[in-house]
Amino acid sequence: xxxxxxxxxxxxxxxxxxxxxxxxxxxxxxxxxxxxxxxxxxxxxxxxxxxxxxxxxxxxxxxxxxxxxxxxxxxxxxxxxxxxxxxxxxxxxxxxxxxxxxxxxxxxxxxxxxxxxxxxxxxxxxxxxxxxxxxxxxxxxxxxxxxxxxxxxxxxxxxxxxxxxxxxxxxxxxxxxxxxxxxxxxxxxxxxxxxxxxxxxxxxxxxxxxxxxxxxxxxxxxxxxxxxxxxxxxxxxxxxxxxxxxxxxxxxxxxxxxxxxxxxxxxxxxxxxxxxxxxxxxxxxxxxxxxxxxxxxxxxxxxxxxxxxxxxxxxxxxxxxxxxxxxxxxxxxxxxxxxxxxxxxxxxxxxxxxxxxxxxxxxxxxxxxxxx
Amino acid sequence: xxxxxxxxxxxxxxxxxxxxxxxxxxxxxxxxxxxxxxxxxxxxxxxxxxxxxxxxxxxxxxxxxxxxxxxxxxxxxxxxxxxxxxxxxxxxxxxxxxxxxxxxxxxxxxxxxxxxxxxxxxxxxxxxxxxxxxxxxxxxxxxxxxxxxxxxxxxxxxxxxxxxxxxxxxxxxxxxxxxxxxxxxxxxxxxxxxxxxxxxxxxxxxxxxxxxxxxxxxxxxxxxxxxxxxxxxxxxxxxxxxxxxxxxxxxxxxxxxxxxxxxxxxxxxxxxxxxxxxxxxxxxxxxxxxxxxxxxxxxxxxxxxxxxxxxxxxxxxxxxxxxxxxxxxxxxxxxxxxxxxxxxxxxxxxxxxxxxxxxxxxxxxxxxxxxxxxxxxxxxxxxxxx
Lengths: 372, 386
Known about the structure:
heterodimer, A: mainly alpha, ABC transporter involved in vitamin B12 uptake, BtuC, Arc Repressor Mutant, subunit A, 2 domains, 3-stranded antiparallel sheet, 3 strands, elongated, B: mainly alpha, two-stranded antiparallel sheet, 16 helices, 4% strand
C-alpha cells in the first residue's frame, strides 16, 4: 500500500480510520499533558507509570476473569496511581532520590506484573490470550469503543485544564508562591498527576508500556523549543502529537511488518531532532549562527578599538594611516577591513585607512552602550 | 534438586551479584535510571550483533550491545549539554527511540531472525541450562553460566582494584580530580561495566528486570546503612536472597523465574522501606510526630516563661491561648510533667527549676543558633538529634 492509497482508504476503511483517529487522539492528549510532565521535571514519571500499570491489568483480569478493556484499564489506572504516590512518598519520606524511586517502582511493579502474567498463562482459562498486547501495544486492536473512550477522556481533561488553568500554571512555575496565596497545592498536584497517569494508561493499548514514555515526552520536548508560553507549548505539543500519530500510522500501514508504536515514536523523535536544530529561538543551528555573528562582530570592534587608540593621538581623527601599522594587532583581514568600510566606520584608500566620525564615536562609546 | 535446577539457581545468583555491585554506585551517583535506559537501548546493538554472529551468547554480540549502551550514555549527555531539555527528558527521549529502531529491525527481518522481543525484554532463565557450552567435545556447563561468571569475575576484580577511586569519585568529584583521579574516566568505566552486565544479564532475566536487580538491592541496602562497604555487602546479600527465594516461588507458582525474583526483591524492599530502624517510613513518621510534640513543648515552656501572671498560666487558658486541641495539650502537659519541667498547683502551671533552665537554654539556642547550647538537651529529645 502506498501513501496515496492509504489516504484514499482512510475515509472508507473502518479499521484504518479507527486506528488513525485513535493514535491522533492519543497524540493530542499525550502532548497536552506531557507538557506538564516535562515542565514539572517528571519526564520519566511516564516511563515508571506505564510499567507500574502492568500488575493492575493482570490483577484486574485475575479478579474479574473478563477481558473487558475498560476494566483492565481501570486496574492499570489504580496500580499506576499507587506507583505514582509511592514514588512521591519515597522521595519525601526517605533519603532515596527520585531516580532511584522511579527505577524501583518501574522495575518492581513490572516484575510483579510479569509474575502475574506468566501465572495467568498457566491457568486453565482460554480467555487469557492477548493480555501481552499491553506490553508492546497493538494499535490494530483498537476498536471504535476504545477511541470513543479516548475522546471522552481527552474532552474531560481539556475541560479540567481550562477550568484550573490559572492554578496549574502558577503551581508549575512557583509552587511556594501558590501555597502562600492559599491555593490547595496538594489537590492541584494530585489532579494534574491523576490526568497524566490517565493519559499514560490510555496509551498502553496502542503503543505499549515501553514506548509510552516517549509518547508523553517527545511532543512536549519538541514544542518547548518553539515557544516560551505555556498555552502555546501545550497547543504545539498537541499538534506534534497528532501529527506523529497520523504520520506514524500512515507509514506503518503502508509497509509490511511495521508495528505502529515504534514508528509513531520514531516520527515523534524526528520532530524533536528537527526542533532541536531548527527552532529559531533555542535551536542549535541558529544558536551557532548567532554565536559566530557575535564573534565576528567582536573581532571588528576589537580592530576598531585599536584604530581608535591610534587615531585619538592625532588632532585630525580622520588622518590616514598605513594598514601596515595594524600588523601589531593580529585580528584583522582584508575582508574585515572591507566590512568595516561597509559600516562606514573607516575609509580605505590604497594601503591606507582613516577613521570616520561615525567610527570614532562608535569606538568611543563601545563600553557605555547602555546610553544608546 | 535436579542438576538443571541447581544450575538455574547458580546462574540466577551470579546474575544477581554482578548486577548488585554496579547498582550500588548507580544509586549513589543518582544515575539509577541510566540502567533502565541502557537496558532498553542495547536492543539495536543486540539485533545488529545477532545478524553478524547468529548466536545470542557470542562475545562479539555482547561487545556490540555494550557499545550501544555506552553510546546511549554519550547521547544522553550530549543532549543534556545543549541545555535544550533537562537530563531526565534527555534519557526519556533517547532510549525509546533506540528501542523502537531495535523493534523495527527485528520486525522487518522476522523471517530470518530467531530473536523474539518478548525474550529480549523478559528473558527466560528456565531455558538457560539447555544451551550448553561444548569445549572440544566436552560439556562444561551452560553457556550463560560461563558468560555471567566471567562478567562477575571482571566486575569483582575491577571493584577491588579501583575501590578507592570509585569511592572518592562517587562522593566528591572535585576532590577526586584534585587527587588526580579523573571522575570522567571513572564515570565511563562504570557505564561500560554496567552496559556489559546489562547485556550479559538480559538473556537470563530480561531487559526490565535487570533494572530491578541493579537498583532494588542497592536501594534496600541504602535504607539500612551509610557505609559503602556494608552497602555493597548487603546489596549482594539481598540479590542472592532474591535469586534463590525467587526461584522457589516461581517453582511453586509455576510462573516466570525473573518475575518472581523481582517480586521477592519488591517484598524485601517494601519490608525494609517500612521498618528500617533509622530511615524507614515508620521510623521517619514516628520521629516527625515526636518532633512536632517537642516543638509544641518548647512553645508551651516559652509561653510559661513569658507570663508570670496567674490567669495566663491557668491550665484551661492554655487551650484557647496557644490554640491547641485538647488531646494535643494533654500530650504536651504530660510530657512536661514527666520530665519534671512544670508543676501544677490549683490548676495553675509553673515552671520548675529544671524547666526554667531548659527554657533558658532553648531561648539561647533560638537567639544565637549555636549548637553547643543544646548539647546537653540532645539526650532527652529527638528534635536536636537530626
